[in-house]
Automatic annotation (TrEMBL), chains A, B:
Keywords: Cytoplasm, DNA-binding, NAD, Repressor, Transcription, Transcription regulation. NCBIfam families: PRK05472.1-3, PRK05472.2-1, PRK05472.2-2, PRK05472.2-3, PRK05472.2-4, PRK05472.2-5. This is Redox-sensing transcriptional repressor Rex. Residues 18-57 bind DNA. NAD(+) binds at residues 92-97. It comes from Herpetosiphon gulosus. Its main location: cytoplasm. Homodimer.
Length: 219, 219
DNA sequence: TGGTGTGAAACACTTCACAGCA
DNA sequence: TGCTGTGAAGTGTTTCACACCA
């Protein structure tokens, strides 16, 4: 999915949920007010970055004081569309899919998994959290009936593209893809990707460099 | 962890594992040679980007031909330090941790989970893949004995910081954090973060905008 | 006083466009 | 001919630094 000119930069959009997450912890702790400095330290981001990011959306702070936690959190939630609950489907019920289906953190943050699907008939009927596993063949019906726009894909890499095709054909516009493959979609569909191995590999890069460094310093 | 000046940009380092992944699929398919154009189409990246990225590390292609798949893959693996197998520990054996422990995709890509830990005594002794769950109290010993430099954290948010502190105190320099919280570490430690909910929220942002857009266009 | 909001400057990253080569 | 490797140009992102305000 591409960004139209004059739109908010995607980097900013990706940071907003982190701000929201941190603000909700602050709210739970009973903190009323927070400065960009304090929030930045929690999140590992500069104060200027936070102020600049927020300035795309309005003026939420008070000079000399900072930001009211509840007020800013409410605004960010609304900006992200989280004043509504988003129904999503999950496809793929291997160990990872089961963990996702059982995780409470989706529902508490505005994401409601309303259906879980697998093509393995031995899994159909399995109860996972509030959901019962349904066959993939029921996907189109459910997607359309509930007007689903978001989906989580946790199938093996070889199946990911076909599953994504079905999702997109039935109106899904945002996909969280756990399969270690880049899926092809029309450019009005958003895809975010989770590949823990790739993330680890990006760290092994630096750790190997460090070795060499030390070796060099020893001479 | 910060980047020293003149170093390879971190964005580039993060793309290398994606290139490696795609190249290994090509190799499995028996493809011998690939152009930056073809590889880019698979990955959703421009050809120029790939050529530029690779040029940080050397010259791996042949004019008029493209890249030899095996040769380039070998080089990228070496650049990422993947000519060695990296032993890692996993802390946290809830449903997610269990899925991680059982996932075969780590070992096949150079990441070997050599220990899994939890502080819940009812889980100690549980067999997960090739590992048996050990108590957190054994962490320091194992980290030091095996010279572990990478860890995966899959504990609840409230426990993440204390776990990370123990890891760092015992020599861990790279952490893959599944807990929905930004952990504090010394700046010689790398942290990568996985928060599926935050990724979904960054998509609900765009999907909400689209609604408004349509509403606007209807007038 | 202590903090925000924001243009402008600095920096980082991507894309272009083409020389050069098999 | 068809593709790489790469300076230079273009674009995007972050940081600076300060006017402004409760």
């Amino acid at each position: 999915m591409d960004i139209s000119p004059n739109a908010i930069p995607d980097v900013v959009v990706r940071r907003l949920p982190i701000y929201a997450r941190s603000l909700s912890y602050l709210a739970e702790e009973g903190v009323r007010s927070v400065s960009s400095q304090e929030l930045g330290e929690r999140i590992g981001v500069t104060a200027a970055q936070i102020r600049k990011d927020l300035s795309y959306f309005g003026e939420f702070g008070k000079q000399g004081i900072g930001y009211n936690v509840e007020y800013l959190l409410g605004h960010i939630r609304r900006i992200l569309g989280l004043h509504e609950v988003w129904p999503v489907v999950l496809v793929g019920v291997g160990p990872l899919g089961q963990a996702i289906a059982r995780y409470e953190g989706f529902r508490t943050r505005g994401i409601d998994i309303i259906g879980v699907f697998d093509n393995d008939s031995s899994k159909i009927g399995l109860q996972l959290g509030r959901n019962t596993v349904q066959p993939d063949s029921d996907l189109p019906k459910i997607l359309q009936e509930h007007n689903i726009r978001l989906a989580i894909v946790a199938v093996p890499a070889v199946r990911a593209q076909e599953v994504v095709d079905v999702l997109v054909q039935n109106g899904v516009q945002g996909i969280l893809n756990y399969a270690p493959i880049v899926v092809q979609t029309p450019d009005n569909v958003w895809v975010r990707h989770i590949d823990p191995v790739a993330l680890l590999h990006s760290m092994t890069y630096y750790l190997s460099r460090e070795d060499e460094h030390h070796a060099m310093n020893e001479h």
